[in-house]
Amino acid sequence: MQEMIEIRWHGRGGQGVVTAARLLAEAAMEAGYFIQAFPDYGPERSGAPIRAYTRLSRSPISLHSPVKAPDLVIVLDETLLGDPSLLEGLKPDGWLIVNSALPPEFVRRRVGGYKGHLALLDATRIALEVLRRNLPNTPLLGALARLTGLFSLEDLTRHIRHHLAAKFGEDVVRANLEAVRRGFEEVRIDPGQASPGERPIEVPSGGMALPWFELPRGGLILDAGNAIAYRTGDWRTFRPVVEMEKCTHCLYCWLYCPDDAIRVAGGQFLGFDEAHCKGCGICAAVCPPKAIIMVEESRVVAAV
Amino acid sequence: MAATPLNLKVLSEKRTPLSGGHRLCAGCAEAIIVKQVLLAIDDPVVVINGTGCLEVSTTIFPYTAWRVPWIHVAFENTAAVAAGVEAAYRALIRRRAIPEDRRVVFVAFAGDGGTYDIGLQALSGALERGHKFLYVCLDNEGYMNTGIQRSSATPRGAWTTTTPVGAVMPGKPQWRKDLTGIIAAHRIPYVAQAAPSHWKDLMSKVRKAVAADGPAFLNVLADCNRGWRHDPALTLEVTRMAVETCYWPLFEVENGVWRLSYRPRRKLPITEYLKLQGRFAHLFQPEYQNLVAEIQAEVDRRWEELLRRCGEHV
Amino acid sequence: MGRWMALEGTEAVAYAMKQIAPDVVAAYPITPQTGIVQTFAQFVADGEVSTEFLQVESEHSALSACVGAAAAGARAMTATSSQGLALMWEILYIAAAMRLPVVMPVVNRALSAPINIHCDHSDSMGARDAGWIQIYSENAQEAYDNTLQAVRIAEHPQVRLPVMVMMDGFITSHAVERVWIEEDDAVRAFVGTYQPACTLLNLERPLTFGALDFYDYYFEHKRHQVEAMRRAKEAILEVAEDFARRFGRRYGLFETYRLEDAEVALVVLSSTAGTARVAVDNLRRLGWRVGLLKPRVYRPFPDHELIEALRHVRAIGVMDRAIAFGAMENGGPLWLDMLAAAYRHGLHIPIANYVFGLGGRDITPSEIEGIFTDLMQIAERGMITRPVTYVGVRGEAPLPTPAEWALWLPEATIAGD
Ligand SMILES: Cc1ncc(C[n+]2csc(CCOP(=O)(O)OP(=O)(O)O)c2C)c(N)n1
Ligand code: SF4
Ligand code: SF4
Ligand code: SF4
Ligand SMILES: [Mg+2]
């Protein structure tokens, strides 16, 4: 192994991204590594895309800056595949690891024609089957043991047993070990063609960052309501779909949508603002004739 | 000019005060309440916002979701900042820097942390001095912005990260503070409790509040699906249950006269409210039966006290 | 025409406030600032000024209300001391960073504990890096003049920063002095009206004040703030120039006294500078070449100008009425700044620190003569043996007296051969 491995995790608030970054670090620590695990702290709320990082090294880590050029990018939620910053800085010989049941070609296409190393694991399904909860972290750890060779499946087993036995019964411990084993075995590896030195994708970072002398005085924002330019539509894991025939244009959905994502004109319900709808499901819940249903976003995406 | 009727078709023609693209959690009631409060007001508004989820999530530089003038200064001083803004408005009218007929409504939004706890002094001072503004407490019963810690609005028995459930602690040990009562004791012209599930009631209260001759206070139950631990789609259902169980009664105190705004046809047991939320999940284990009974008794006691104050039969 | 009035320092400032007639004043009483609030309250009660006067429930709310008022486009003022300033701490930084031109007279008082109502500079020195412009006044006249100028400096389009105007608690605040009060109209003409372009009450253009920054913008905003502080120096001089033109009293970044041919110099703020002048005269009579420099503007720190004014001396003494606990040698903040400035501008001479007067402890001309004596010895030796002296503290080795200096001198000359 190289001296230090850097990993970036992508997921959504509430999915255990931070825990995943930490679990991996702890497993590696048991195997004798020096570790770091830390999240990107932001104001983002449940459902918003968030990142966390893990650093593993054979020697003490004195670096305390964000991971800019990860060796591994791990995506816990396939609805994030369209995120243009997903591959930011990924080393040319690095790996993209995605929790997904989708075929590799499809994933590559969703990630803007990515050509590098790819590994896929349907960790959600394994978790649901074995743990009966959507906790994709555990199976992913198994996959990582296999992919990175950082620690053996035995190391990992010992760690998990040690970690869980104190708090949980033998059933829980065994189920977790099973999840790890299946992750180890079921990870699908799809090596890429990236040649050394070639960056898989170039993403401009920083957006509309202005130099200090062009900023308005005192932190003012001059442009009322300009948040409309900020997309929160990619927070969605479910999206509302309406059956227009049932709609009575009562506008309860408009009244209760927290994200101003119901389009209305002339007192008539028109549809949803996909750029901002976060998929909370409130519109569906309050719609008196049940004209709105919520469907899984990944299905919609896959169908595109 | 007649006020815009509280009719959704007509209201939907108005420009919403908060744009999409803010970063509150999916399903957050704070955004719903802001919309209802500000759509009820026809005059131009200026918003003063204390630190908390709403402030943090709606103005992340260089973006702002606010379509109305908005200011945030700190956590505990929302009412003091509002007082300064309102005083400035009066002064500027007097020196004719702004036209005399320019009507502006000042609306302060702050969380329960910023109101019940750290900001209570500044609020009490501003109310006593009689500034003309509407203060809306977005009461989600905890410090949600910092990751769900208890406040004095957190109900007894609720899990929060600083009142965790453990072998010797059943969540928060204390009863919640009766802030609405404390504010009513300031004898300001208008005080009310509302909930976004009862939108017409809420919006009518906002109108009475801004028409009042002096400070007005609205305590609004603001469901936080992340902290209360439930599916965001249930936000309005949970809120409605708070009202139907009489956990969160809707009432107003207008110039010292207490009036009940809504009386459920059949008062539901508190468990109907508790069972919807993960923060109370532990209460349904057998060892907490007594605590649930105590909670029910306390809800009943406070409800009956309110009925008596409002001159309703108990 | 203006007129002479016998006024206490706080009254002089309250007069300035009445003449400025801010749109909003929000304040809370604390000794020794109380005189400002009370006098101003009387002006309001008598209808002499039409300010919205908020008798808030705390200093934290006082400054918060000023921030709100200033953002709304109003000229806003408050005043405080000591614990009140400490309670404002959070909002000090916010007012500066939001670039709101609030003006605040500060009547310097020691900080608790032990609770003490008398003068020292611990309060305003603790706020020295909060982003406010700080101006120190020697007497009631200066406090009055500085308060008037502060409004112009704060609102200067190149600056837009809040300003604190300091005067010494009791020594200045409660002493009656002869103060020249300018004509109301002349003051009004001097301060002008505050008409900011971006305000919260501009309903046609809704603005967002006080948004959240992340690492992608916070630093740029701080850099922006630095620029304002940088430009403040020039603006302060520009305002002083206009003030002198209108009223004949001239102010700079600092003031010197018999410094031109001095061998040793003393740097000291506020009322003690007046006492030090007496000491300088006493020693000059004995033929000692001693001089004085009184900084007026402490933030922004006029490092270059100060050092140039002192470049010809052989030793400098810096008097501090505060301790920067845990800083180098547990000296005072002014000393630390002077050392840094000397290093930065290549002045390599001994610079000693004299911490004095904490909690209102008296400082007399003879004690300051002792300081000068110590400085003469330092200049002669070319080195410092005691970098920080706590002047007049029981249990500390006392300073030499001028008489001892006469005995010591020949011996030193021999030793120096
Ligand atoms: C003086 C101060 N103390 C603590 C904080 C940290 N803080 C920011 S928001 C917050 C809690 C907010 O709770 P609440 O007012 O109920 O608003 P919510 O986020 O729940 O809507 C805390 C503790 C702060 N910003 N300022
Ligand atoms: S709530 Fe349902 S019926 Fe009413 S307008 Fe919306 S979609 Fe139509
Ligand atoms: S799911 Fe419905 S209520 Fe929720 S954000 Fe989307 S449109 Fe609005
Ligand atoms: S944590 Fe709660 S209050 Fe805060 S944004 Fe999320 S749902 Fe709203
Ligand atoms: Mg709260």
TrEMBL record, chain A:
Show the GO MF annotations.
4 iron, 4 sulfur cluster binding; metal ion binding; pyruvate synthase activity
| Record EC number | 1.2.7.1
Note the PROSITE patterns from the entry. 4FE4S_FER_1, 4FE4S_FER_2
The record's annotation in Gene3D superfamilies points to: 3.30.70.20, Pyruvate-ferredoxin oxidoreductase, PFOR, domain III
Q: Which domain of life is it from?
A: Bacteria
Q: Name one Pfam family in it.
A: Fer4_21
Where the record annotates domain 4Fe-4S ferredoxin-type, the positions are 238-267, 268-297
Keyword set, alphabetical order: Iron, Iron-sulfur, Metal-binding, Oxidoreductase, Pyruvate
Tell me the enzyme class. oxidoreductase
Q: Which PANTHER family match?
A: PYRUVATE SYNTHASE SUBUNIT PORC
- The name under which this protein is listed is Pyruvate synthase subunit PorC
Q: Which gene encodes it?
A: porC
TrEMBL record, chain B:
Protein source organism: Candidatus Thermoflexus japonica
Superkingdom of source: Bacteria
Return the InterPro entries for the record: PorB-like, THDP-binding, TPP_enzyme_TPP-bd
Q: What is its EC number?
A: 1.2.7.1
Keyword Repressor attributed: no
Q: What is this protein called?
A: Pyruvate synthase subunit PorB
Molecular function as annotated in GO: pyruvate synthase activity; thiamine pyrophosphate binding
Residue ranges of the Thiamine pyrophosphate enzyme TPP-binding domain?
Answer: 51-220
Matching entries from Pfam families are given as: TPP_enzyme_C
Keywords from the UniProt entry: Oxidoreductase, Pyruvate
From TrEMBL, chain C:
Q: Which InterPro entries match?
A: PFOR_II, Pyruvate:ferred/Flavod_OxRd, Pyrv_Fd/Flavodoxin_OxRdtase_N, THDP-binding, Transketo_C/PFOR_II
According to its UniProt entry, the protein's GO biological process terms are: response to oxidative stress
Q: Which domain of life is it from?
A: Bacteria
- Enzyme Commission number(s) from the entry: 1.2.7.1
Q: Which GO terms describe its molecular function?
A: pyruvate synthase activity
Q: Where is the Pyruvate:ferredoxin oxidoreductase core domain?
A: 262-368
Q: Does the keyword Ligase apply?
A: no
Q: Where is the Pyruvate flavodoxin/ferredoxin oxidoreductase pyrimidine binding domain?
A: 16-239
- Keyword Oxidoreductase belongs to the record: yes
Q: Which UniProt keywords apply?
A: Oxidoreductase, Pyruvate
Q: State the similarity comment.
A: Belongs to the pyruvate:ferredoxin/flavodoxin oxidoreductase family.
User: What protein name is recorded for this chain?
Assistant: Pyruvate synthase subunit PorA
**Native organism:** Candidatus Thermoflexus japonica
